[in-house]
Design the sequence.
């Protein structure tokens, strides 16, 4: 699933570089979110240390698939909440999963001949999100809906953008708005290109709209370059959480 964004994103960066732009390639990792709660639950219940040492990515996938059972749903949410609150045990496991993954990813990037200027992840923005929420409140953009906090974008035909869950946990949108603000401060970009699958189209339209409503003029220089999906033989998409995936190597 990530092969396309890696190859297209890299190609775009190389083309812009050739055109004389200074380009910064960021590998932005999905290293935060409820899926880590699930992985911790899977690890606590089912880990096999030998497998973990031998085939870390495959084994983590197995643990993740097992933990996706409905009976572990609440336990996974609780673990992610602990992670957001800086619980030592949760952080230790999260670091372990991340380091093992990065080691494996690097092998593939070498194979593809792709180098990144910056490796960053959603976790980096965990402590900056409260500023975003304050800013949204100050601009009177936040509303409460079913105990969750949202930005209502109905009048722009963009639905509602969920900013904070009812249990105070953050979401992709919270992190993406925060990341965009931070990147503009750091890089003063003339254009920021997100190479992400087409199923995230609405998500990015919402993000760019929220940034614009916050008064950031540069929001119009944010672009989502999307791509379609590789489908399985049955014409359906691959689903990691069901264990339906093909390993790139």
Sequence:
């Amino acid at each position: 699933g990530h092969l396309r964004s890696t190859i297209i994103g890299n190609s775009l960066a190389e083309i812009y570089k050739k055109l004389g732009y200074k380009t910064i390639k960021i590998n932005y990792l999905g290293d935060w979110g409820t899926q880590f709660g699930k992985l911790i639950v899977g690890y606590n219940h089912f880990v096999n240390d030998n497998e973990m040492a031998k085939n870390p990515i495959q084994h983590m996938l197995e643990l993740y698939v097992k933990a996706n059972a409905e009976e572990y749903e609440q336990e996974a949410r609780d673990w992610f909440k602990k992670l957001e609150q800086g619980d030592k045990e949760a952080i230790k496991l999260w670091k372990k999963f991340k380091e093992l993954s990065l080691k494996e990813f690097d092998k593939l990037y070498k194979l593809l001949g792709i180098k990144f200027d910056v490796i960053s992840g959603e976790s980096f923005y965990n402590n900056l999100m409260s500023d975003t929420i304050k800013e949204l409140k100050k601009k009177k953009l936040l509303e409460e809906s079913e105990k969750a906090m949202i930005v209502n974008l109905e009048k722009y035909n963009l639905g509602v953008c969920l900013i904070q869950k009812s249990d105070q946990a953050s979401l992709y949108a919270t992190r993406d708005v925060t990341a965009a603000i931070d990147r503009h401060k750091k890089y003063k970009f003339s254009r920021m290109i997100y190479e992400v699958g087409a199923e995230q189209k609405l998500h990015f339209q919402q993000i760019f709209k929220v940034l614009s409503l916050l008064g950031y003029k540069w929001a119009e220089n944010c672009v989502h370059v999307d791509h379609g999906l590789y489908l399985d033989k049955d014409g359906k998409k691959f689903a990691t959480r069901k264990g339906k995936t093909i390993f790139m190597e």
